Fold each of these.
Amino acid sequence: CSQKAVPQNHFTFICFVLICSLMRTTNQSKVTEFIIMGFPNLQEFHTFFFILLLLIYLLTVFGNIVIFTIIKLDAQLHTPMYFFVCILSFLEICYTATTIPKMLSNLLSGTKSISFTGCLLQVYFFHSLGATECYLLTAMAYDRYLAICKPLHYHAIMNTKMCFQMIAGCWACGFICPVTEVILVSKLPFCGPNKIQHIFCDFPPLLSLACTDTSTSILVDFAINTFIILVTFLLIMLSYVNILKNVLKINTAEGREKAFSTCASHLIVVLLFFGSIIFMYVRLKKSYSLDYDRIFAVIYSVLTPLVNPIIYSLRNKQILNAIKRKIAHKRVYNGSVWASNF
């Protein structure tokens, strides 16, 4: 996993400039900032939640950095599967950085405010990185499908060039997807209440505050989210149905176990992530209470990024063995340095 593994795509900067320019020139809102309410019924526990969220954030960043670094340093892990895991770890660090630091700040702040521009930028980057993760998980499922169902053609298809192209495509498509939604929201007038009934800025709570008809924006938001989430999820499930069919054809129990073990971690991550975002975004009408929305937002924005490194390290023998090799190498190196001093 080299430096080239993290694509430096220009779509981020282009979309950033476009969105900022639109917000400066087209929006005539009286509201200049929003108040993020979070969990209003739990305000007396804000210190406890701050400490808990801070620990979760530090563990998430540390865990993903460990996986990213181990895969980069260990030559035995320089395979397409771990290349994608490496990118996923980097993505999770970016994904959590869009919301959790501001959530931590709000837990300590009395105002819990965020500027209009800052709110839209948070929405844009959160959805961009979320869409990128959907595409990346799909690419990982395709990689496992080729490895198990097309083993003779796997190395010919999933070469270095193909891996980089798939990663670049995931990031580019991810950063393009929310542009239309952000532009539509940036043109809406906000002249009344400015309290966002959520734990961070997001499209549904923002649309509910606009003082005009938002049916078009709601429909566009629903269509884009439904397409991204359901299409990628169905492609992943289709890959695993084919994988299951091929695994059941393996004669030996050891072979079946090995095939299942390479896919189990990825499937757990997929079900956790997609289960929560399908509940949140693939619906036109709000049929659940705001507390349900907040709880599911915690799952896909806080808990899933925390669980990913745990699943990929504790359930993955190759990564565990790589960590052990690095620790053993470090001990040997420190021992030789200590011996040379005497």
Amino acid sequence: MTEYSNNAIPLEGTGAATTDAYSRGNESTINNPDDFDVEAARNKEDASLNSREDVLSRMRTAQSITMSPELFEKLYLSPERAVKGNLRQTFANPTPLAILSHAVCACPLGCDLLGLRGAGQFGAASIGAYVFIGGLLLIISGIFEFFLGNTFSFVVFCSFGGFWLSFAGTLIPSFNSVGAYSPTGDSQVLGISTRAFQASFAFYLCFWALLVLVLTICSLRTNIAFFLLFVCLEATFLCLTIAYFTLAEGKYALGQNIVKAGGGCLLTCGLIGFYIFIVLMLVAVDFPFLLPVGDLSHLMKGYQQKHGPIKVH
């Protein structure tokens, strides 16, 4: 008599008995539960399914972490650099949050400087946004870029987070940054119109223009959209620097016109930021189509790409 294994497959035998027993395997499985371990069969089937799911999971993971240098640059606004660990596959991309926070603050301030629909007063109505969106969110994003190994994004986001916080501090009455220049020492209205404040503020903007110039040059290794954002930002700081030096000389009408020019540049900068934010979000959700940013990283080869790792002597 032919014996059966737990999987209802006949053991080796000879002659017609073996063939006949094999043909009745399914019937034996159903009618003779003592000869067939159902639980073992289910466990084996579950193990097989889990094995297939593990393989598919590894395939999906491998696909999700493989990206071209162009896609990396689009996601992080920084040329790809080799870093240790797999933090970029562990944590979310902080870049869209940083771009959004800057755009949300830059656009309203640009409208204020332009004086659209009666807006003005240096955007004092948006002090809360400058502190909690422009300042706090940019610095948090910059810290995450630091841990991901993206030095350029880290410097850009943290420095501009500091700018929005310092700009808000200038407008907050309790800081008395403006009022200290008034004859009474505490009047915001009188202080902002003094020559000393206008010239001092112009120097602050002047050195920000110098910093942005350096960042603009560095952005040539990223993409056209990010580069244009820095170009507009550089134009903003230059216009406002010239405007406040002009106001300090007593040329009020000319100075106000240059302020409006700076406001227009800042508004354009903010709108470009919104475009970059949309691009990043479309990539993040794997949208069916993507928007172009004009990759520049392949046009200007880096020093290490040409000469190998930098040697410190």
